[in-house]
Amino acid sequence: MKAAPFAYVRPGSLEETVAELSRDGAKVLAGGQSLVPVLAMRLGRPSQLVDINAVPELDQLTSRDGALRVGATVRQRRLQNDDLSARVPLLRLALPWIGHREIRSRGTVCGSIAHADPSAELPAVASCLEATMVLTSARGRREVAAGDFFSGALSTAAEPDELLTEVSFPAAGPGEGFGFGEFARRHGDFALAGVAVRVTAGDGDRPTARATCFGVSDVPVSADVSERLGAALDRTGAAPARADLHRALGDLMEEVALDVVDTGGDSHASPAYRRRLVAALLAREIARAYADATRSREGSTS
Q1: How large is the average pLDDT for residues 181-197?
Q2: How far is 18 from 50, CA to CA, in rounded Å?
């Protein structure tokens, strides 16, 4: 099929962009990796496309105030290859899993987050890290926490006239470790289930752990798994081998999977199968993140 007729504008400034978005039926075009298939299948019929690729202030990738700030037209491939991404290790772990190289070369970071596909990697990363979304319209600018941004499948807190101009990811600190994993039938396919993990190991304190699961609900589902990590460490000791911690976490993560997987299942996987995937992925990635966190803590104190 071909897209339904639409008007096309390519503003050169942010002010012009938000003015165009205030028109009824306007839709943002950035990388087009999600929008173009929707148009081609006539699942969406916007009256006007607002191409934001000529707006220079939206192509900014900066690190300041303890955060990595990613502008609306920054491509996924650019972020993957930029040295600045080392400040947010979870992004570096997740980006290679997104589609294929050609998709990442056109797809934008903000576009994937704004599209809010339940099986997409970047919304889960934003949720796990508690990133901040910056939304801009002709009415002004506002910030929304990731936990309040995703409201349902392909649905967010952004109003129709608002543009996601920037996402602010907090930089990793000493004693933090990360894990990311997903399972798909083929590399590049949307994940049947996936997890993003952040572990913080403080001196003399019990570690804290946050896990976000995707592909298992309408939105990324985050859970505090600190107590379960602590229970696994009680079994293995405070400095376990990664393989030992992985095994100790196994049955504990089954309880988490029961809580977070609320999909009704589909032709690709049943809820029970997704729970098994989530439990296995969580055990592996939490063990990995804890090992990285303890190394990071030791390195910061040596």
Answers
A1: 94
A2: 9
